[in-house]
Each structure stands twice: as C-alpha cells, then as structure tokens.
Amino acid sequence: MDIFKDRLIEAMVARGMRAAELSKRTGLSKARISQYVNGKFTPKSDAVLLIAEALQVSELWLLGKAPDMEPAETEPPANISPLRLRRYPRLGEIACGAPILAVEDPDAGYVTAADINADFCLTAKGDSMIGARIFDGDEVFIQQTDLVENGEIAAVVVEGEATLKRVYYYPEEEKLILTPENPAYEPLVFVGRELEDIHILGRAVAFQVKLR
C-alpha cells in the first residue's frame, strides 16, 4: 500500500498535478483520490489504469512491480487500436429471467471503451438472454430512451422491477410482449391497463462479457 502511495505522490509531483486535477481527469472522486494519496486504500485495477493514463506513467510502476516510471513504448500489432476509457454509472442488476428490483448504486461504476454510446450499465443476472450471448454477470450498456424499435433488446421496468428482454409493442392491440432469448422461458405479455405499470429504461447498445 505504501509503495502505491509513494509512487502516486511522486508521479503527481513530477507531472505538476494536484489531486483536484487528477480527480477531474480520471472521473474518480476527490475523496477517493485523497484516500489513495494518504495511503488509506489501494485502488482496484480499473482505477489504477485511469490514474496511470492521467499521469502518463506505467501501471506496473505505480504498483511497485516495475522500475521505470515511463510506460514502455511498444508498437502494437496492426489489428489493435488504442482504447479510450470512460466510467459508466452502474444502476444495479437486471434480470435475465424473472424481473428483479432495480436499485441504483451511486458509488458503483464500470470502466470500458469510451466510444460506447450509453448512459449507464447494468449487471445481467440469470440466463434468459443467452441466445443473444448475454450471460449471467455480463455488463450490459444502456442508452436511455423511452421508446425502442420492435425487436430491440431493452431494459424494462415492470411494476418497479427490471428485466432485459426483446421488446415488441402493438399499439393497435394495446399489447406489449417482452421476449427472452432462451426457449426455457415464456414471453411476458401485457395488455390494456397493465401497460400503465411498465416503462422502458433504455435500449441495450453493447455488452461486455467476462472471460469464462
């Protein structure tokens, strides 16, 4: 822990960067940066990456695992592009099965590619969307909108509980069908006044799988 603290301070001095500026560049709170500077906590890998990029130093050096502050300059293969990162707020968990309660966690977040056009992410739970390659534990990125096209995968709140399904809406019949991507699950069908308790959080625009 002391190694990270010492090297963080050394890098901030070398770059002439105060904690407030580091917070702004990384998206991490000032309080969290202060905890790292004071040696109270060591950041997780995603925060280390953000700090290293902001300070333009080696991640391994920050962690005391390399002797050189400067990141190694290597020529990447032609099929590899630099990854710009962005922190997405995590709303909570979303059911890929029976609906579950959607609870916002303001302190949680997920770091991934900055070019994903999303407003927040949710952690998938269950197996009802495996036909769309969305598995339990995957991060699903949601673009906030009230309306989606038929056939799009969306995060939908049903009576205060959230679920991830393909959406099919038939206004002439006042019918909404939420369809899973797993034949083990039946579609959820809502008609008439039942629609008053349903609203769409947004469309799924990307997901990030965990290596299994």
Q: Which structural class do you get from the secondary structure elements?
A: alpha+beta
Please count the helical segments: 5
Indicate the mean pLDDT: 82
CATH C-level class of the largest domain is Mainly Beta
| SSE succession | HHHHHEEEEEEEEEE
How much of the sequence lies in strands comes to 25-35%
Radius of gyration: 21 Å
User: What CATH architecture of the largest domain would you give?
Assistant: Ribbon
Q: Give the number of DSSP strands.
A: 10
Largest sheet: 10 strands, mixed
CATH-derived topology of the largest domain: Umud Fragment, subunit A
Shape: elongated
**What are the low-pLDDT stretches, counting only 5+ consecutive residues below 50?**
100-104
Number of domains: 2
> How widely separated are the two ends?
30 Å
Percent in helix:
10-25%
**What's the CATH superfamily of the largest domain, by name?**
Umud Fragment, subunit A
What are the defining features of this structure?
alpha+beta, 2 domains, 21% helix, Umud Fragment, subunit A, 434 Repressor (Amino-terminal Domain)
How is this structure best summarized?
The protein is of the alpha+beta class and 212 residues long.
Describe this structure in words.
- The chain starts with a helix and ends with a strand.
- It is elongated and about 65 Å long.
- The protein has 2 domains: 2-62, 434 Repressor (Amino-terminal Domain), CATH 1.10.260; 88-208, Umud Fragment, subunit A (Ribbon).
- The protein has 5 helices and 10 strands, in the order αααααββββββββββ.
- Helices cover 21% and strands 32% of the residues.
- It has helices at 2-15, 19-26, 30-37, 45-55, 59-62, and strands spanning 85-96, 100-101, 109-113, 120-126, 139-144, 153-158, 161-170, 175-179, 188-191, 198-208.
- The protein has 212 residues and is an alpha+beta fold.
